[in-house]
Each structure stands twice: as structure tokens, then as C-alpha cells.
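[job 4417] fold queue: 2 targets
>>> target A
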Amino acid sequence: MSNNPFGDMFGDIMGMLGKTGPDAWFETARTLSLNVARGAEGDPNPDPALRARVEDFAPLIARHLTATFSLATEETFECVNRSTLADDALTNWRPLIEPFITASAPALPEAMMTNPLVGQLASVLGPLMTGFQLGSVAGHFSENAWSLAAVPLPRQRHDRHVVVNNVEAFATAWSLDVTTALIFALAQEMVASEFLTQPGTTDALRAVLLDATRESLANQGDIMTKLAGMVNPDDLASLMGSPESLLGSIDIPEETAANREVNAAVAVLRAVFDYVALWITEQIVGPAPLLREAYRRYLLNDAHGEEGAAALFGITLRGPHQELALTFVDQVAEKYGIATFSALLRADGLPRHEELPDAHQWVARVNSSPLA
């Protein structure tokens, strides 16, 4: 009989952790994310005909962006599958989360130290569970999201990837013209890519993300406490088979000043990307009221993977601040013009929480800024 009370499967996991060293948490995240992204039916590459259809519109979208925001917008992008988007998400999120992985772990409950193997698990549990969480979130994010534009976060690279199969599924579900939906999705990603790789925008966004992410990942302490009650082999084996079952039971902290600020910034950025993308789409194909309404309903009812990804960073994609952000963007665009959103490219351009109900206050501030 094995000396491992948790069975061979659990021993294999511990052995794998020992071999991969300090990057074990990230490799765990990548493995889990790809398994979730592929799902039971696999993860086919986009249809070549749909891919060619998207490629035809990229130069036109780029020209609109260049003319509107005076940016040297490139036409390059790539149609990808869900697995690639999941991997993109992990690569993009890693530098935002990694500084917190090496932080001191919380004190371990005494119950966890009664068995040497449990103690061994506990020594890597914080990073391991972060890997489980990150991988699960990235995998589920890729199930329906069209691109990284769905959750505005600072980007390391200028890559533009669009999951054509997800866009097609959205268009089919809402009885929309697929070409119109593809133009919108590509325009959304191209706008997001331009803004989220600009030094001013990314520096400001990292600053407001810092505290919110720290608060969100502090929930790992709750995971340690909950695991203390799972010291028998059956429960731990179950956890290894479905780590999401433990992660799903962790309470979400109440709203704080940190996530109010990041919520305001992200909500406005997201609303700007959507507004500009829809404007460009309608410049190309004409009025698209069905697309506008279908996308609004999608965000309200179906964007669960995107919401999970945002929550990882202490961001909430639902709530009053979202409606305020939509009104904010409408007011700015209608009174001052779309080009006014160029202020978001500066280090002092992100709207503050107190400015969200009053777009004119934000416009006055950014127009009088020394950086203007």
C-alpha cells in the first residue's frame, strides 16, 4: 500500500510542483486554462472564409482610427481560437499579478500541520491556488470573449487577436449579420489595442489597479483557512479534481475606495472602446441598431467569463458605475466629439470616481491639464 494517504494522483501533482519550481503556479494556470478553453468539443481554428472577410476591413478600420485620434494605427491583426486567447490573457495578466505571488503567505492553521504531506501542500498552496484561479478564469474568459478588449487592462504587446468563432456564435445567437458583428469586434480590439499600449494610459491604469488587485488576491488567505477543514484524503482528492469548487466559495470583499477608482476607469475605457467601435462599424455598413441592442443584452446576460476575469483584479463589470460610464461617454461624444477621448491616452486622462456622474467636470480637468 502506498505511503501517500492521498493516492497516486495527488502524489503526481506534488511531484510536478517540485519539478517546475517558482513558475509552478503559472504552468498550472496555463494547463488548466487550455483544458477549459478547449472544452469537450475541442477548439477549432476559425473558418478561412470568415478570416478573409475580417481581413478585408482591417485597413478601413485603421484609417478611421488614425483620422480620429491622430494615431499611427497599424492594420495587422490575427484571427485565433479560444486557446490562443486564453494564453494571451495569461501572458497579459501575469505581470499584473506576479508581484503579489511572492508576497508573504498567511500563517497556516494548526490543523494543516498535523500531516507532513499537508504541510508540504501548504508551503506551495498560495501560489498553487492562484494558478488554479488564474487558469480557470482565463479559460472561461476565452469561452465567449472576442478579444482582450473585453476587460481593459494594460498590455505588454501590440498583438491584436480576435476569436472569430466566438463572434460568429454571438451573431448566430442574436440573428445578426456575421460580417457586421466581425467588423464591430475587430474595431473594438483595434481601438483597445491602441489605447492600452500607450504609456500614459497604461501607467495610469496600473496605478489604480495596484491596490484593487492586492485586495482581490488577499482572498487567498480565506482559501488557506477553508483548506484547513479538508485534511482527509477524499476531500483533497475532490479539490484536485475540481479546484474551482473551493475558489467559488470565497467571499467577495465589499466595495472599497481602491476598486471604486479602478471601476470608474475601466468602465469608461470599456464604454469608449464600444462607442468608437460601433461608430466605426456604422460608418462602414450604416446604422446597426440590432447589433447595438444585442451587444447590450449580451453584456447584461452572457458575459460571465469576462466578469470573472475582471473580478480577479478587483473590477466589477456590473452596477451603477457601468450606467454612469455609458452616460459619461455619450455626453462627451455628443457635446465635445469623439476625438476628445484622446485625453485618455495621457497619464492624467483616466476619469476619477467623483467625475463619473459629471462628464463636463472631467473635460474641464483634462483640457486645463499641463499635459493637454
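>>> target B
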Amino acid sequence: MADFEKHVVETLNFNATVLVFDTADLCAILLSGSMDTHVVAMLREKVNAATVGKRFNYIVDLDGLTYISSTGLGFLMYLLKHQREYVYLSHPKLAVLKPFNLLGIRTMFRYYQTVGDLEQRPEVPAEVLSPFWVEKEEVAAARQRKKWVNILRDYLIDGELTREIQQMSAYLGAAEDGDTITLPAEEKYASVLYKFLDRAFHTVNEFSGEPIDEAAIELIAKELMANAVNHAYGNRPGGTVVARYSTDRVRIEITFTDHGRGFSPAAPDEGGLPGAGLQLLRKIFDELTVGEAPRGVAQGLVLGKGTTLRMVKYVKPRTRPASA
């Protein structure tokens, strides 16, 4: 069995296990849970520290991943940019695969179905597969244990969870009533934005092109909020965002406004995926325009001209059944 170093990044909803086989020039990364924007920096720091000084090949196990943000995709593109010879990904679930397809980057990677499949790849050192398989089993077992804990929590009063829900209660109520909502620019409020957008999309029934499903709504909510927090307000507290929607017989229109620094095209960086959040949104919506925030009194922190995203999805008219 090959010698290796093990590094772990873990939060409540995410786990990454990094196995570094230095003598084989290979790094195996096992991802589990929701790969939101805020966990990617921690993961990238771990991988950079463990692989500094030379190029590695990468095997990335996505079997336990339930969601990947545009920043998460940028991390995978970063591996691709700094690979020695290859980056292998396990075939992701449909919800995780969706943003790959939307951005057209699926074909940039090599894929495998099982660890047994990797055994047939001569470029993959055989001695790393046994410890990789053992770790994969341990990660899956830990994920299963966490699942029952999460189920149990549905029936218990968790002090921290209850406190968060209580603090959000006014926003949760607003998400269920009305066509406008103002939220703090904090990533946890993507959960409330999801609730608001889910109701908005369910006011219409059928969409031209690809439907807006739960995974797409989650992606929209998280990308919008992450963009506001990270880019518009630069992670400074006190900012707010305003979401609005309107519908008619042919379309649903959503606007999302912040009062941050204002939009400027992102310059390419080592993540390899500049403006990925906007690219994803452009793939989901039929129209997307970026402009300055409307002039007027703004709530909370104001850093500049702000930004308004206008997103439109066209709908099909509901077809009536033919008369008998």
C-alpha cells in the first residue's frame, strides 16, 4: 500500500478528504455534501499546501456531492490548469452535472464510473487504489451516519437551528407573501431567497426550453447571494439585496439589486472560470442584463453605484385538453 498524507476540510454541510501520494505524483480528493462558495477557499488552501513544489495528477470523487457552486467549478478548472497529465472525475449526480453542462465544460475532464474502472487505466498507479477505496468507504459511512443525525434533528429542537429560524422569521414570512423581498447580504439568506424564488417560479407552470427545477432554483439563489456578498460588498457586513418578480402570460421576470461597488467584468484568475456565476445564470434564463441599481434611498451599506440583474424566462401557454 502506498504511503500518503491525509488532509480534511469539514463544515456542517460539506466534507473534503484530500489524499496526497507524493511518490506517485497523485492527489485524490473525495467531496461530499454541498460545495458552496465559502468552503472552496479552505479546500484550495489545503490542496495548494499539500501539492506545493510540483504538478500532480488528480482523482476527484464526486459521488457524495449534492451541489456545486460556480466557485466549486472554478476549483476543478484550477486542478485542470495545474495537472501533471490528467484530472479524473467520478460521474456526478444529475443535479451536480447540470452546471457542467450549462457552462459547456463537461468534456474538459476524464471520467470514471467505479474504482474498478480506474484499475483499467494504465496511467493510474495501482498502488493508490486500495487506500483510495478504503477512504471512499469511510467517507460514505460517515455520510450515512450524518444522514440519520439530520433526520433526527427534524424531530428535535436544536438550539442553534431554532435561534437562526427565529431570527429569520420575518424574512421567511416575507418570502411567502408579496412580489418583493429585502434581505441582508449574507450567504445564509440564500435559503430565504430560494423560498421566495420557488414561490415565484411556481406561479407559472411550463417553461420553454429546459424547465426550472428545484436544483436550478437552488443554483440561482446561491449564485445571486454569493455574488452580492463576495463581489458587490466585498464580504463587508451591513449590505442588503432586493429581489422582485413579475409574471404575465408569456414570461417571468426577476430583478436582483445590491448597492455595492457596481459591476465590472471579472478578470481571468487562477480559478480559470471568470464570471462563472453570470455564465450559469445566462444559461438558465432566456435574457439576462446587468445595469446599475435604481437611484433612490438604499437600505444598509452603500459602496457605489450598485448592480441590478434582470433575468427573464419565457413560458409556454398552458395547453387545454381537446374537447371530446
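[job 4417] complete. Note on B: The chain has two domains: 5-152, 164-314.
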